[in-house]
Structures are given as C-alpha cells and as structure tokens.
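your task:
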Amino acid sequence: MTNKDLADLIFPNINKTVKDYEKIYPDRGGKVTTRIAPSPTGYMHIGGIYQAIIDNLIAKNNNGVFMLRIEDTDQKREVGEAVELIHSALKRYDLNPDEYEYHDKTVGNYGPYVQSERKEIYHAFIKHLIEIGRAYPCFCKKETLEELRVMQEHKKQRTGYYGKYAKCRNLTVDEMIEKIKAGEEYAIRFRSEGDFERKFKFHDEVKGDLELSENDEDFIIMKSDNHLPTYHFAHLVDDYLMHTTHIIRGEEWLSSAPKHVELFNTFGFPLPKYVHTPLIIKKEGNSIRKISKRKDPEATMSYYSENGYPKEAVIESLMTIINSNYEQWHSENPDKTYLDFEFNPEKMSSSGALYDLEKLGSLSRDIIAHKKASEVASESYEWAKEYSPSLKSMIESDMDYYTNILNIEREQEKPRKDIVNYSMIESLIWYMYDDKFENTTKEYEWKNITDINEIKNILKLYFDKYYDENDDKETWFNKVKELCEELGYASNIKEYKQNPDAYKGNVADISTVIRVAITSKSNTPDLYELMKLLGKTRIMKRVNSL
C-alpha cells in the first residue's frame, strides 16, 4: 500500500487538489491584505480590538483589504453569542471589514470566512501532505500522551511529540491502514523534517531579525473528534488562499513561528509578513503584569460600553500604545483622525504595551469636552437606553433641556472637562431635575459660610432685592457684587486678599451660598447659566425649602 492509498482511505470524497483551490482563490495582484481572526470562545477583549485597529490601519495605509475571519475550530469552547459580540464590537468602533461573512450575507470572493465551513478545503491540503509523506494518522490516546509529557518533565526534557517520542510516525502505511479499518480513532500529525538544534533566520516586523530553533515536533494538524484543523494548519491554508500579506497577532504566538515556517516551506508557499504585537500590560502597585480577562474588567470590551466611554477615546487610548510617535503626530495634526496616521511596526514597544485607565480617562474628558452638546446628548441617550433607565427617563422628559445643560461652558476656548464617560453624567446633573433634587438625600456643601441664619439672610436679601431672571450675565454678576458690599463682603477677591480682616468674606463665598442653595453642590458649572435654565419659580421653591 502507498501513501496515496492511505490518503484516499482517510479522504475518499476529497477530489479537489491544492492546484484546484489556487485557481478558485486567485492572487490579489499584490494588494496588501490583513485579517482579524477571532475565536468565538468568549467576549471580545481589548487585545482583539487592539489588533483589529492595526489590521485596519495597515490595510487603509496601503489601499488594501481588511478581512474578518471567524476561527471556530475549537468548537468545545465556543460560546453561542460570541460571533454576535465580535461583529457588534467591530461595528461599534467603526472597524468595518471589507470582507466578511455574517448570517446569510457574504462579502468578498475568498470565503467562506468561517473556518468550520472550510473543512473540505483543509482536507484537500492535508490529503496532499499524506500523499507526499509529510503527514500521518496518529492513534495515541490522551492517556498515552499525558504519560509521555509527565515522563519528559520528570527527565527535564523538552515536552512534545518529536523524534523518538513520535511513536506513530514509525508505523508502516499498511499498519496505519489496518488500524483505520479496525475503527481506531486518530488525529493527523504533520511529519516534521526539522532539527531543534538548528537555527533559522526569521524576520518579525516588530522585533526585527531573529534566530529561532527549527521545528521538530510532529504537531497535530487535524483533530480526531471533529476532523477540523488546528490553528497552525488553518492559518497556513486560509492565509495562503486568502492571500493575507500581514499576520498581526500577539507575541505569545512567536513560539509557534517555527511550525508555521516549516508548513509554508513544505508547500512552497511564500511567507507572509509577521507582526507580533507586544502584550497589553498594566501597572499594579510597583509591579507590571499582563492584562487579564479574569482579574481586570477593562480587559473586556463590554467594560467600555457599560461605562459609556466614547469609541474615539478607546481608540485613541490604544493608538498611544500602538505606536510611540502617535501622540506627537496627533498633536501636530489635530484635525486628522487616526486613520490618517501611518502605522510603523518598528515603533511598537518590544517589552509590552502599558495600558493606563487614567490615560483613557484624560483622553475621554478631552474628547467629550470638544463634542457638540447635541452630539453628547445623542450619544449619552443611546448609552442610557441600554444601561441607565434613570438617565434615559431624565433625557426623555425634555431633550432640549438636557442638551442645554450639557452645553454649559462647552462652546468656549477652554471648555469644561468634567465628564469622563457617559455613566457619570447623571451624578453631575441630577440636581437640575426637580424630582431628583426633592427626593435625594442632600448634603449641602456650604464651605466658608455655615451659619444657617447668615445663609438665610444672604438669600433673602439677594432674591428680594437683587435677583432678576431677565438680567444678562454682566448685570447679574454686578448685582451679586452689590449684595456683597451691602452685607460687608468684599466684592473683589484681590481687595479681600490684601485686607481679609476688613470683610466678613468675599464674593466667592456669596456665590457659593447661592449655588449651594439651589443645587446643594459647591462645585457646579457656571452659576448664571444654571439659574437661567432652572428659572425663578423652581429656584425659589428650592430656596424656600431650606
């Protein structure tokens, strides 16, 4: 019996060859092509978006193609809603692939874009390897492989199925055929011709020229349970046929490069460019560690949605760790978006990308502060519809009123920057809504003037004699200063500082009393604008309830 007989026995219905598939998926003419290839095994994590941004940037920089491929060969770990979450996360951050498959819709000519639908293609390539003697069925049971691993560890040897430990590679074709016919379960392994003691040169776009040990492991390329390929083999087939030019993946995959290089060389396929991105790390006390989906809520993209961070803030925060020169470029090109930036893998950190939530918060404050009030209102309303019934109700009671609140101190040279994300808006404006103000337990932040009789005296004189809701801002403030002078407070801060003992306080103290009386807070946006929005009737109700 020959290798071809063995291949025909394993894949009797596979009639297409590697050459046939090369015709089905013709060369793209050198067009730069990238892909994000997530596994639907859980929620979309920040590393996935981080890599998708790079994929998208490389494609856009070169007028190329950005693909989405769902790598669902690990079906035991697959989570039902994961594919939906992947698509919604990419859509949320405007990382829209040029080619993809979603529900019954396929965009692009190089699909299927879901690996489980490409089984026959993988089988044709595996069949070819068996025919040329570079792959074989392995009948070793899990228990046998576990015993091998334990023995190797005990002897302090490199673990794996290689060399003298690759038991099934020494079976004859006849023995393999006999075992298959007898119904023995098997996986398919690649037959390596590498030598671990030999080195080869490998170029990574981030780390530069490296020397790696050759692969000598007969690793599994087709699983025994569902006959789907492992990541290693699917990567070869898909990225070759889809003509992927750049493979962007985490640096934890660098150790697998020898396997992939040997596979590509075995088929005589050109090697794509590899961009092994640094791990996203975080500072914890005095130590630095890899960001963890188990320990860190910010590792999962739902964290940013639930807290209402604008998508631009999340992308900008990631761009600052993607390339070291991005922040300077962005400050020099404030009117451009990150898509105008030219990504350079050499500008990536080789020691880890430090992600900082404080940095995200700072960027988010600035981005929200420079949006139009109507845009913040619309975006925060969309957020509230999903995450905050309370804020949703406030907004729906009067959208124009809500927008006007957000517009206070916004359209000016230095806009107010108190909103970090949309989840905190209600905590900043609740006092502008009568039902919230009346039903919330308030701690009045009176500051320097705390005597309730003095407070009531200030308020009574101000609202009886000076307050007119029709005043412009200058007139309004001049009247507050007149009130100060009548009550023995300095109407000018500079004068107060020169001779504090001559006054009971200053104009800031008086303003604080008025501010706290109508909001309960000593720190709010512009008092004049707040009073204009509240109106005299509502203000007097609050003042009279003290």
Q: What stands out?
A: The chain has four domains: 30-113+278-368, 119-277, 373-439, 452-544. DSSP finds 24 helices and 14 strands in the chain. Residues 30-113+278-368 form a domain with the Rossmann fold fold (CATH 3.40.50.620).
